[in-house]
Amino acid sequence: VRLCRCRCRALLSRSAGVLRALRGLAAGPEMHFGFQTVTEAERREKIYQVFESVAKKYDVMNDSMTLGIHRVWKDILMHKMNPSPGTLLLDVAGGTGDVAFRFINYVRSVRERQLQRKLKHHQNLSWQEIFDSYQKDKFNSLGDSQVVVCDINREMLKVGKQKAQHLGYCEGLSWVLGNAEELPFDDDKFDVYTIAFGIRNVTRIDLALQEAYRVLKPGGRFLCLEFSHVSNPLLSRLYDLYSFQVIPVLGEVIAGDWKSYQYLVESIRRFPPQEELKAMIEDAGFFRVDYENLNFGIVAIHSGFKL
Amino acid sequence: VRCQHYPPLRALQASAVLRRVSDEHKKEPLTSSSQQHFDSHPADHQPEQEPQGPRPSYTGQGGQESEDYESEEQLQHRILTAALEFVPEHGWTAEAIAEGAKTLGLSVAAAGMFHSDGSELILHFVSECNTKLSELLEKEQKLVQLGEAEKKPIDEFLRDAVETRLRMLIPYIEKWPQALSVLLLPRNIPSSLSLLTSMIDDIWHYAGDQSTDFNWYTRRAVLTGIYNTTELVMMQDSSPDFEDTWRFLENRVADAMNMSNTASQVQSTGEAVVQGLMGAAVTVSNAETSRAMR
């Protein structure tokens, strides 16, 4: 059934492409949108619509599709980053704020441990001095760390802001509307740049990587968490089965949107595998590019440094 | 040890941080209105943001020098050296490395290049200390060769070498136990063991040991034992200037010398005993023969 559907779509898109060419609409080079072939401008438009429609149910769908494992993936990303207080993080395509909230929690606990250690050393101070240091540090629970969440989609940002309010995150958080291919930030600004499950949806990945390089400080780190290629054949078949048969159905039942989740699954298949993405990151100028497979390659974390 | 990735074209590509190797030899102070002659970075840096960015070259106009950029390893080396100054405050951790990176003008995220338990920092420190020790011993040997200094007796030489090496730990002595425990992690044992053995080897080499028999192994095993035990004693020594430790060291070295003397004494005693027995046996057999003949 799956193959038949793909072939039908391919036929349709080819005929549509011919019609488009006849109509003389030169809207950009051919790109893929899931298993369809579309122009660049169309792709951006379609992806925007996908996320606009899923924004409200985004988190619920993540939990049900990955059986909650996506939380573990994001935690592992945070542990790999190991941010120290004072870090400036840019979370691109960070929509609903998962990575940003985890960053704030992590930095807060590191800062607490730091303060505890400082107090242990101050055993010989007078009570007045200890009280003064308490005052100074109490209002700096994040240690000047900040996270900027940047997303191209207004709906996703709205959901993220509501979540932040609901969960009580107020300081150290900024929400910016922006395109990963053309970030509205100055050069050499951020310590860490993350893009979790977002680079797949960027139309020109090379531009996004170049922008990442531009906005990072020297010594800054690029981290990309994304679905990737499973090499184990047995697991790959099970994964395919699950992806194409179960996920779109879940999408229809929970979010009322079969097509968006069909797109999701197809876009994962079309995304370059680990080594290719590593080469692209190196081309953008990053050094020490490395990747770590999670769950046998279902997800991979790529890391690079601007040196 | 992870193998480094050295793509051939990367040295020529724009790098924001990796300095030219030649710049390391230039001692002239950096002028902030530097002639940004090489097209490294399209953005313009403010001088305070990147104090160790492209330095002016006093050799040529334009930008086509054929020097190499420093490798990533050299940059890591620099970060770790800068991080050592923060160890007394933060311990042997990624935080110290982050602070070190900050002083070089890099982002704190550069500490992500290293393990979060600080292994690389400790191994770097140990290897630096060993290098310093070798240099000192070599200088001393040169002085002796030139006749400007007396050649020390072996036990004094060993004592001084071990003391010099252990004194390098004094600035970091509070956090050193933590470092020792990290060095004993299975992941680090190959590197830490090889650093230890090469240091002991160096000391014996400069002590003039040229043995080619089993003595080579015994000598190194003995000195390794002396070094390790003295290091542990130093960890919990609270006497002024670690007097107790140096006295402990003196006793251990003296023990080792005595042991080797005893060993040779035992050997010669054993030979004497055997000869005595042989003589007695010959005498008894002669007596028997002569009695039989009478």
Question: Features of this protein?
Answer:
heterodimer, A: 307 residues, alpha/beta, Rossmann fold, seven-stranded mixed sheet, two-stranded antiparallel ribbon, 11 helices, 54% helix, globular, B: 294 residues, mainly alpha, 0% strand, disordered N terminus, methyltransferase (chain A), ubiquinone biosynthesis (chain A), UbiE/COQ5_MeTrFase (chain A), UbiE/COQ5_MeTrFase_CS (chain A), SAM-dependent_MTases_sf (chain A)
> Regarding CATH, which class of chain A?
Alpha Beta
Mean model confidence by pLDDT of chain B: 79
Total number of helical segments of chain B? 9
Termini gap of chain B: 84 Å
Organism (chain A): Atrichornis clamosus
Function (chain A): Methyltransferase required for the conversion of 2-decaprenyl-6-methoxy-1,4-benzoquinol (DDMQH2) to 2-decaprenyl-3-methyl-6-methoxy-1,4-benzoquinol (DMQH2).
Protein name (chain A): COQ5 protein
Subunit structure (chain A): Component of a multi-subunit COQ enzyme complex, composed of at least COQ3, COQ4, COQ5, COQ6, COQ7 and COQ9. Interacts with PYURF; the interaction is direct, stabilizes COQ5 protein and associates PYURF with COQ enzyme complex.
